[in-house]
Specification:
The chain crosses the membrane at residues 73-90, 110-132, 153-177, 189-209, 230-251, 257-281, 293-310. By secondary structure, the protein is mainly alpha-helical. It folds into two domains: 3-64, 2-Layer Sandwich (Alpha-Beta Plaits); 73-313, no CATH class. It has 13 helices and three strands. Strands 1-3-2 form a three-stranded antiparallel beta sheet. Helix 7 (181-203) packs antiparallel against helix 13 (287-309). The longest helix is centred in the middle third of the chain and has 32 residues, at 145-176. The protein is globular.
Length: 316
């Protein structure tokens, strides 16, 4: 049997865990020899035996993994329009002479909670759902709903604690570089720029694709070595995840242990409603709907980036 190597467009991948989700779904097909997904270039290279597999099966697998092999420009245009309008009204508006009148901490915490809620749909469908499902499959005595909820509660408790501690540490590190107001504002502007770029990536508008955040922990680190849901949840704070790493950057810009920890804590609380009921949503929620919510989360991240770059709206 002859082998064929082809590349397929995969739109919607945001991080390494998304690549894993695509690769695992395609690998279920017969005749697959090699798979290499790349979220930065929105593509996957597949080598397969043409007698056992074909393009249509691979495209269907991509769709089943929650992504698309076709580019929906309408969604991107609408999302970008919302971003531009948000940037216009949230910043100082020279045409109207108005400026945003939010209180920094209150507005930020509300947006962080909503952001956590939106991104949790993506976590269930793409990243956290895979990890959590494998964790529960390894646990014992979880046939009844009560035990299943207990396992989910342990996992999410570890995750919230991990996010909060990491947020505090990162925030404290930010304070080291914030000796003066000028330096602190500069750090926030840089962080805001990277948050805007990250948010645009989540929407599907990719710029500066060569900028990558190092991957220190892969999914197998947690899944294969630990059976305790709490430990797996705690270690999930170190997994490569676009929104999570963006929030860590947000915590860094706070320049405070308390604000960094509080920001990550509020963000993690926003993810709890969906993550605690993951068993229901993972089987019933349409993956394409999850992807749309993820794009909305990208818009929120862009707005947060704009807020951060506005000196009138910095943490007080």
């Amino acid at each position: 049997m002859s082998k064929i190597t082809k590349f397929f467009h995969v739109y919607g991948m945001k991080c390494h865990s998304c690549e894993v989700a695509v690769e695992e779904e395609i690998n279920k097909l017969q005749g697959i020899v090699n798979i290499d997904a790349d979220h930065n270039n929105s593509m996957v290279i597949v080598t397969y035996e043409n007698a056992l597999c074909n393009d249509d099966k691979i495209k269907l697998a991509i769709k089943n993994s929650g992504f698309s092999s076709s580019n929906n420009m309408l969604i991107k245009v609408l999302a970008l329009s919302i971003v531009i309008i948000s940037m216009f009204f949230l910043g100082n508006n020279p045409l109207t002479g108005s400026s945003a009148s939010f209180t920094s901490v209150e507005t930020s915490f509300i947006m962080l909670f909503v952001l956590g809620f939106f991104t949790s749909f993506h976590c269930v469908g793409m990243c956290g759902g895979i990890l959590l499902t494998q964790t529960i499959n390894k646990a014992e005595n979880i046939k009844d709903k009560k035990s299943s909820f207990k396992t989910a509660l342990l996992y999410n408790s570890g995750r919230v604690i991990s996010y909060t501690i990491i947020g505090g540490i990162v925030g404290a590190l930010g304070s080291i570089f914030s000796a003066t107001i000028q330096i602190q504002n500069f750090i926030k502007i840089i962080a805001g720029v990277f948050m805007i770029i990250s948010g645009l990536h989540m929407i599907g508008i990719k710029i500066l694709n060569n900028i990558k955040i190092p991957i220190f922990f892969k999914k197998s680190t947690c899944v294969n070595n630990h059976k305790n849901p709490f430990i797996v949840g705690y270690l999930s704070g170190f997994l490569p995840c676009g929104p999570l790493q963006t929030m860590q950057l947000y915590a860094l810009s706070s320049g405070s242990f308390i604000m960094g920890a509080s920001s990550m804590f509020v963000f993690s609380l926003g993810t709890l409603p969906i993550m605690l009921s993951f068993a229901y949503f993972s089987s019933r929620m349409c993956k394409s709907f999850n992807e749309k919510l993820y794009k909305y989360a990208g818009i929120l991240i862009v707005i947060l980036g704009v807020l951060m770059m506005n000196p009138r709206l910095h943490f007080r």
